[in-house]
Amino acid sequence: MNTNRQGVPHEKHRQDYRRDAQSQAGQRVVQVNFFRNKAQKELDPDLLDSKAQQQAGLLHERVNSAQIMKFFGDIKGLYLRLEQGRPWNQIEPMFRMIKSKAAYAASSGRAGRIPEEFRDFLVVNIDKVRDEDDLRAFVLYFEAVLGFMYGKGLVTK
User: Fold this and answer.
1) CB–CB of 64/156 below 8 Å?
2) Closest alpha carbon to 71 in 81, 79, 61
3) Per-residue DSSP letters for 83-134?
4) In angstroms, what CA-CA distances link 89 with 4, 19, 72, 94?
5) Partner of 54 at 20 to 30 A CA spacing, among 5, 83, 86, 120?
6) pLDDT, position 138
7) DSSP conformation class of 2
8) Neighbour tally for 144: CB within 10 Å
9) Can you tell me the distance from the alpha carbon of 63 to that of 73, in angstroms, rounded to the nearest whole number?
10) What residue segments make up the domains of the chain, in order of their start?
11) Which of 25-34, 50-59, 119-128, 133-142 has the lowest mean pLDDT?
12) What CA–CA distance (Å, rounded) separates 110 from 25?
């Protein structure tokens, strides 16, 4: 069995790290369901109102507008490709890659870094997206969160 320098099996270390990261993220990310009734594509009405306000309130550090618009622009661009008829299986890999971009943008020592809370918001919600309907719902949710962030003065120029 492969172990790390402390003698902990690698897989156990990865599981502990994921659990710790999910626990920390859970304190900074509002747990949402995109749909009240997914079969009927009925959005949860709280998603774009109280849940979006609550999520914006959990983002305590100011976020640079260029960073926000880069992430929102990437996600919205993928959404538009989907709406233009591109199949989900071509969109999904690029959508998933946004998590790595968020991890890099949140890394310490970088000028213009994004707060960990914003990174966690992106990662947790990207993980929830399983199909094109989820992506459509997430784009609306992200847009609502951004509106509340601007309203609370959490976005800088």
Assistant:
1) yes
2) 79
3) HTT--HHHHHHHHHHHHHHHHHHH-TT-TTPPPHHHHHHHHHHHHH--SHHH
4) 36, 28, 20, 10
5) 83
6) 98
7) -
8) 18
9) 15
10) 10-156
11) 25-34
12) 21
